[in-house]
Design a protein that fits this description.
- This protein is α+β, with helices and mostly antiparallel strands.
- It has eleven helices and 15 strands.
- The longest helix is centred in the first third of the chain and has 18 residues.
- The radius of gyration is 21 Å and the shape is globular.
- GO terms for molecular function: serine-type endopeptidase inhibitor activity.
- One of its GO terms (cellular component) is extracellular space.
Length: 404
Amino acid sequence: MNSAIFLCLVLVGLCSVTHGHHVPVELNSTAAPALKLSPANTHFGLELLRQISSASPSKNVIFSPICISSAMALLVMGTNSDSRTQILDTLGFNMTDIQEKEIHDGFHNLFALLTHPDNLFHLDIGEALFVKESLQLLQKFLDDVHAYYDTEILTSNFQEPAEAEKQINSYVEKKTQGKITNLVKGLSPETALVLVNYIIFGAWKKPFDSKFTTEKDFILADGTKVKVPMMAGSGWFHYLFDEELSCTVLQLDYNGSAIAYFVLPDAGKMEQLEKALSMDILVKWAQRIQRKTAQVFLPKFNISSSYELKEILSKMGITDIFTDRADLSGITGQPLKVTKISHRAVVTVDESGTEAAAAGAIEMIPMSIPPTLSFHHEFLFLIMHPDTRSLLFIGKMVNPENEA
């Protein structure tokens, strides 16, 4: 994976903050606070995958559950009553097992670990809260978002929507290295607050050699074949075949501790796989995956997806914040409601890595012909941070020819 960019936008009648300069922690310090988040974040991410896939079964999927859930968790700091309960329940948190402070501690710890300057993989996380000039945020809310989410508050003139859109879009374009432009359109003069957060992710530990990339067939769900550039590699890989779920799981590593799972179900088994995926399944794969020889064929692709999450999150249980029943009184003390939650992701998978293709130690492989792992029909891909069991993003490749 050469690059991955995820961005979440929350429009409330609200204000502005930036995430990105977390207090450094030692890499050998405990990841316990972040680990406490992983069951809920994984459950939320996989349920969101099921919702998005069922709504658009023929489309590619890419999103960051961490990006979305951290934005919603920050919003929790300003909610009360049913608004708060619905968000926490939908995010997968059982409040008898975890305290709200532990959730915010967990995100703070996770982002500090992920963005530590000594990390060998490239990851940048940021969050910005743009606030109406005349709006006064409650001091407790300000203190909390600074303490837990390292948020920078920015003011914006929403009474001049075009001016506010230009300000926010310029900020987003800069923070995403020009990959995401014109995120915000059609702002209302009544907007009070816009919350933006993003994740940018880096490159393979061991790249594919581009001279072995060739055009091959990729079979769509309806049986149609499309020609796509297929990367190829032969040697030692970590993989397994899950007989219960009828799927092949290939693990590719990033520099540092991040890994990618590419999950290829047998033909016709994608829906079964999506329904069955859980935290327990991911733990089982991590325990059972083995290093063996293989020939691997994986398509190059570049996809971007944009989601308006209001309807999906409402189906999942978050309803009140979008209505006049919203209780966001912890933000300003004034009546507010969320008008829009958007998420945009851009992902490129190609041969690029942080090592030259010809570099690295010489590996001896058996003389016998190794198994072939060919990702030539729809598959899932997941990026994990194993140290904290965090699911950073989830994707579904249906057609590599389509960028959306």
